[in-house]
Amino acid sequence: MAADGVAQAETRKSRRTRVETLIMIRKVWPWVFLTLMVVLFTILAKVMNNTNFLSFRAVQSILVYASQILLIALGETLIIIAAGIDLSAGYTLGLSAVVAAEIMKRMYAAGVPPAVTILVGMACGIAICVIPGWLNGLLVARVKVPAFISTLGMGWVVFGAALLVSGGYPVAKQPPYLGQLGNGYLLYFWPKHGFTFLHVPPNATPTDLAAIVPLVPNVVLITLVVVLVCWFVLAKTQFGQHLYAIGGNFEAAMRAGIPVRWTLIRVYIFAAVLAGIAGVLWAARFTSGAANAGETTTLQGVAAVVIGGASLFGGEGTIVGTVVGSLIIATIQFGLVILGLKPFYQFVAYGAVLIVAVIVDQFGRALK
Question: pLDDT tens, 29-39?
């Protein structure tokens, strides 16, 4: 009998060790997958095009690619942790870009200084996004409409509003310096001459530009600040802890006295504001506004969140995981461009990676 007891104890210990190992694999698999993607594209780029995938400029380009995805994904992270979803985020991005571009166009045409024009236009582009975020929160928290349906419907409403504002055409004729803000860098290093901030060295000739190394894209720097704010909100504030509680057990959160309805309304507004920031940065990068600017970004954002380890059932997720997930999506996007493949393959890759991430999520829940 004693031998049987020892054998059963060893079996339980062995099973527990295997489960702990599998849970650890679930946590680190996005990092492993990102590393594999980088290695794969590095090899393929060298073999197929004789190009260096991991050049300094390429890494910065990937970070720029990831910025728009990440800004949407950050909002999706907070909502998914609270067991919701926002399918209107990409269209909210487009509304923000259109409103900001239209206001900047009209103000600049009226003779307002460019700096004031850009500041007011971007502020209005972000502020308008509070409306769909607030309506999403009301529908989900007060009217009890499922988030999938309410945000999907709101997405079409927002898309229609953006088309009405823009007339169905890109909003061009933007003020000067807008493109410099969206496509510029914090630092420029000119060997033997030193650094300059925010602009190319004024005494550099066109032949000197090839030797000048731009450092830290403005878009990436702004996104990094937003990431730090979101990390603090989620990890260090009562609001963030309430999101985990609501996603983990809605009824228990209600009984614990958490203001569930108000928290849900706030999280949808917060996510819409993040989409608004993504929209005005899109307008700055492309010096225009378009209603379909974020048409595919919602899928990319949700995929980044799930790849990063958040559970679609709520209660789980981290900002760091979402950052890794966004880098994976951006790496795939940039890598396929470097290889010269048709952009249609991007959607195939996004879908496949998302399916794998959901399977891993289900596997992790089964282990628990």
Answer: 788 888 888 89
Q: Are 245 and 316 in contact (CB under 8 A)?
A: no
Which of the 8 DSSP states describes residue 195? E
pTM of the full structure? 0.91
Q: Where are the domains of the chain?
A: 52-367
- Beta-bridge mates of residue 214: 188
| H, E, C per residue of 70-122 | HHHHHHHHHHHHCCCCCCCHHHHHHHHHHHHHHHHHHHHHCCCCHHHHHHHHH
Task: Summarize pLDDT for 193-232 with one digit per residue, the tens.
Answer: 777 887 887 777 777 777 788 888 999 999 999 999 999 9
Query: Shortest CA distance to 171 belongs to which of 101, 92, 121?
Result: 101
Q: What is the dihedral of CA 345, 351, 353, 359, to 10 degrees?
A: -160
Taking the C-alpha atoms of residue 61 and residue 144, their distance in angstroms, rounded to an integer, is: 42
Alpha carbon separation from 45 to 49, 132, 308 (Å, rounded): 5, 42, 26
Contact (CB, 8 A) for 17 and 299 = no
**Contacts with 354 (C-beta within 8 Å, 6 or more apart), sequence order:** 299, 302, 303, 306, 307
Given strand 194-197, what is the order of strands in its sheet?
A: 194-197, 185-190, 213-217
